[in-house]
Task: structure prediction
Amino acid sequence: MKVLLVTRHFISNFGSFLQTYASVKAINRCGYECDVLDFFERKERSIFSSKIWARNYKKNFILEIGYFLVCSLPNCFTEYRYHIMRKKYLPLTVRFSNKNQLIQLENYDIYISGSDQLWGRICDSPINSVYFLDFIGDNKFCFSYASSFGDINYSYEKKYAELLKKYHCISVREKTAKIFLNKLNINSEIVVDPTLLFDKEFYENFIGKRIINKKYILVYQLHNSSAIEIAKRISKERNFEIIRISSNLSHRFKNMSSFFYTSNPFKFLNLIKNAEYVVTDSFHATVFSIIFHKEFITKSPGKTSSRISDLLNEYNLIDRYITKNNYKLPSDNVDWLQIDELVNISREKSWDFLKKSLGEVKHGK
Result:
């Protein structure tokens, strides 16, 4: 039987690629073929959103040229590199950019939406109904795996309820999402992000040999947070070099010791695995710090922070979550045996949901 996975795989960052990759591998492990819907609207690509942002500089020619050289041009390069990675590692359908084209995708047995923040605001749209699978008929079997709303727009409650009626079963990634769906009288289960379905041995199969042969603090910062300042404090105490990893070349101009550019998500995993300490404001960098048993601190990204706080509360690691500028560094002692037990419980529950949901088609439910 064949599955169509509908997710936001095309965002050019490590988490977007890895959650898609893990989702496909999980579906394959359950005994199903899987394609990833290669759908994106022009406005969703970072390359185009950066051009829109650049319009702010149109009145100043020098600033416009500077922005193009520092941001837009590097973004084009990054987009191309991620495009190559996606073509190589993800089983993509032909490309679609218009919802009306999707009606031809009626030949799959199962449709899955998830994971990540695909049920909330996307660019200038509060909801994109494609990620609610509204392009398939009501007779098709569909469910969600670890879907997320990001920031929930409560003014669209009726719209959410209408779009989710066709789902045979629903799982979400955050407690906030489950609470919201309960309010709409929609049953759901909480499952782990697809990247957490697998243990470190799975990822070690393809991350290669150690890249940096010295002790370092890895910084992966997506938002305008104080992650770098936190890393500097730890560096002063531990005497480790700070290395910032990014797939955005414009970050090279930020003030830090070393910069490591890559658009290869497997190198990202390599650097997390071999770091002495990880400082981040990223959900997926936090996930992989847990998987690889790394000392870490996660700085709140502000919006959409519930997914991180829910994760860390689930595994008794909330002391590693910093929300304010005046903070105390957590102790170095992490009981990874206890953490692994908690992770394994939620992981097994999530595998059970995925296998049961996929199996319902075979058994005609």
About this structure: The CA atoms of residues 278 and 296 lie 5 Å apart. The domain at 2-198+346-362 is CATH 3.40.50 (Rossmann fold). The first helix runs from residue 14 to 29.
